[in-house]
Amino acid sequence: GRNHPMMIKTRDGVELNVRTDGSGGATPFILSNSLGTDLHLWDSLVAKMATSRKVVRYDKRGHGRSDVPAGPYSNALLSEDVIDIMDALDIERADFCGISMGGMAGQWLAANRPDRFRRVVLANTVSHVDMDTVWNGRIEMVNAGGMASIKEAVLERWFTSGFRTENPGAVRPIRTMIAQTDPAGYAACCAAVRDLDVRAEAAKIACPVLVIAGTHDQATPPEHGRAIAAAISGAEYHELDAAHLSIIEQGDEFERAVIDFLDR
User: Fold this and answer.
1) What is the pLDDT of residues 206-242, one digit of tens each?
2) Residue 181 and residue 174: Cα distance in Å, rounded?
3) How far apart are CA 191 and CA 136, in angstroms?
4) Going by C-beta distance under 8 Å and a sequence separation of 6 or more, which residues neighbour residue 245?
5) Which residue, of 12, 113, 195, 208, has the greatest Cβ tally within 10 A?
6) How many CB atoms lie within 10 A of CB 166?
């Protein structure tokens, strides 16, 4: 299907860059990004899925072509942005896949808006962050030195060293995404990660959930994924031979796992 980029206004007047691809009878599918990336993170998965359903992706506030309102942001605010996008597109019920920060929103959404979601994929994510000093330090670095000050350190955590060495063509666009992220938007989202605690929400989730983790993920280690899967009744757990950005490092296997889970 043709792609339709558009700007959608949230309840608090923020313009978000939203793109829809495809159409078809299957449940619409919403994709939510990690910190420091834009909606092109999902290009490969969208190409595979837009043949049978409408696929919606967006730049979270502070990212890509979306507005950069003053921070800090919260996970609840970033989650409500998804509901505003769904309402604007007249999507009553959707499937959802979020990686990292997207998975933090996914936990909030599945627990607090169960009527709106059919199946949810939570990839490379956590329910709770207990590292205030790390995140406050990152906010300070970005505020002082911009994205250049953290770019290479972030890439080292996002991919295994073997992948970075052997797949420069896959890493390059991600490096560009990080570099082009607005430092103020990035810092405002760092605060949402720092303050995250959706452990009570995870325990309430009743819809089918697939949790994906990366064996070598230093940012959101697999024990966090296993804990989320254990907290959610009936959740499935799938571990990939990847670091944090498993959608890029093990894209084929990630996509196969998601499609298999959603098409049941």
Assistant:
1) 999 999 999 999 999 999 999 999 999 999 999 999 9
2) 11
3) 8
4) 34, 41, 99, 124, 158, 159, 174
5) 208
6) 11
Buried b (16+ CB within 10 A) or exposed e, 17-50: bbbbbbeeebbbbbbbbbbbbbbbbbeebbeebb
The dihedral through the CA atoms of 222, 228, 231, 237 has a sign that is negative
Beta bridge partners of 30: 56, 96
Confidence (pLDDT) at 1: 43
3-state DSSP assignment of residue 56? strand
d(CA 234, CA 209): 7
Tokens of 79: 């989650």
> Which residues are bridge partners to 240 per DSSP?
214
CA dist., res. 87 & res. 120, Å (int): 18
Non-local CB neighbours of 92 within 8 Å, separated by 6+ positions: 86, 116
> Helix, strand or coil for residue 148?
helix
Residue among 187, 35, 53 at smallest CA distance from 99: 35
Distance of alpha carbon 182 from alpha carbon 201, whole angstroms: 30
Buried b / exposed e over 122-137, threshold 16 CB at 10 Å, is bbbbbbebeeeeebee
Angle between helix 101-112 and helix 183-194 axes, rounded to 10 deg? 50
Mean pLDDT (whole number) for 58-83: 98
The residue among 207, 225, 219 whose CA lies nearest residue 245 is: 219
